[in-house]
Amino acid sequence: MLRSDDLLGIGMEADAVRKRLHPGNVVTYQIDRNINYTNICTEYCSFCAFYRPVGSPEGYIQPLESIFQKIEETIELGGTGVLMQGGLHPDLKIDYYEELLRSIKQRFPQIHLHCFSAPEVLNIAEVSGLPLGATIARLMDAGLDSIPGGGAEILDDEVRRRIARLKCTTEEWLLMHRVAHGLGMQTTATMMFGCGETLEQRMNHLELVRNLQEETGGFTAFIPWTFQRENTSLGRFVKEEATAVEYLQTLAISRIYLDNFENVQASWVTQGLKTCQMGLRFGGNDVGSIMIEENVVSAAGAHHRASEEELRRIIRDAGFVPKQRDTLYRTYFLN
Ligand code: SF4
Fold it and tell me: What kind of fold does domain 7-325 have according to CATH?
């Protein structure tokens, strides 16, 4: 299918899978905020325009007061959660993260904390000298509600060595999610494609997350997006970003192949609102969050913006009923 030119046929098949899993004609969106607690990172991933190395004058650790203020603004906009991520800081031990989570939960008990991708959790364990399971359990105790699927890029060690040499391996990424699921923590799975991988490597990625979902059932959603090349060193080698056709085809194939995932997200942040809207007929049943703040892909050239009303409009105009959801894709207590 990845080599086929029958884009519409593949889209229709994906649409049929979506309809089977979501018969109510509802497409969901969320209101949350991305907060980056630090941009200091030791990994130097070649696709990343966000991080600053240790010692950079542009490096920061976000003060707690400013994080609280961002959460207050999110709540005022009807937000239900925050997605908090950062670079892999070499000195911040687990007590920093526990204090961060606890102090947020104390002030905003209603806010869902979806934080720290697999590489960050592995880094916290390593810097703190703790086993992985104990690290996740302590973060959960401190208020962590779920873990985002970032840091997967393409789950193939040949690709990872090329684009993210220092970051966790395929096995480590999968292990973090397996251990988290075993502790009752739900997570998402992502894929950043179009970074020079082969179609086989892209397909192997889908197979690995499908297999882990079969084993644990702990993923709430699959979220594919495309590599954004601006301001990145990888962009010097990968001269062209994936097109809308390639995006829609990969989205549709993800929906067809990952039929053990309830939700597949269409991305407007990297694709823009119009392609995201078309993605709703290529298997997507969710459009992600309005973006109150986003610093990671915008640093790499994706500057799309959308309000709640705009997201509702593109969903309605594609023939669906828009519904706000929370981080765990629940809609019953909203709207
Ligand atoms: S992608 Fe994450 S781990 Fe890699 S350099 Fe950027 S912030 Fe660091």
Answer: TIM Barrel (3.20.20)
